[in-house]
Amino acid sequence: MVENNTRKNRGRHYNVWKVAFFVLVGLIVLAGGWLIWEISAPTADGNTKESAVSQPAEGITLYVSLDNKEISSIVNEYLSNSKDYSGYTLEITDRVALQGKTGILGLSVPFALVGDPFVTTEGNLQLKVDSISLGGLPLPKKESLRILAGAIAFPDAFSIQPEEGTVVILLNKIPLPREMSVRLINIDEQTKEYSLEVTIPVENLIE
């Protein structure tokens, strides 16, 4: 009973955050659409308005800060919507942990990757793995990552790099409304906040 209530509370918390996120996106889209309409709408004499604000070439860009739980929720929502990866989970605290199961020699074997989060120059989230286990047994990093990379067809948003001992979450591969693109700018080690750059294409501002 307690477990059910806990799950309900978690679900309620996540739904509230999810609604707030998409309300924010909706307001940005409406504001962007209004701005473009104001710039391009003709004046009473039939001429196009002149404005000191120029229409962006690629889209409207905004900056958002999310905590580690919210970043985890976005990635886990993506995983849960992928039928082949619904059993995978990502947990971000001071560190990052990716867990799931894979088939090896006909057996379903649990795996876990744990490491530290970093920002790549391309704006993605990199996990520098310092521990990895298969079936509950700790194994050398490179060999384990090679086994996982060969045994699992990971989602497009995950890149396994055995030689570097890293897993990269490609944020631009995660489907978002209106074809938004996302780049990770910074991770604040003190507040555990992730600063993101979100760009919405101009052609998707008004639909």
User: Strand fraction band?
Assistant: 25-35%
Series of secondary-structure elements, N-terminal to C-terminal: HEHEEEEEHEEEE
Percent helix among the residues? 25-40%
Distance between the termini: 45 Å
Major sheet: 7 strands, antiparallel
CA-based gyration radius: 21 Å
How would you name the oligomeric state of the polypeptide chains in this document?
A: single chain
Number of helical segments with 4 or more residues: 3
Would you report the number of β strands? 10
Q: Output the structural class.
A: alpha+beta
Spans of at least 5 consecutive residues whose pLDDT stays below 50 are 2-16, 30-55
Q: What's the overall geometry?
A: globular
Provide mean pLDDT, rounded: 71
InterPro entries: DUF2140
Protein name: DUF2140 family protein
Transmembrane segments: 16-37
Keywords: Membrane, Transmembrane, Transmembrane helix
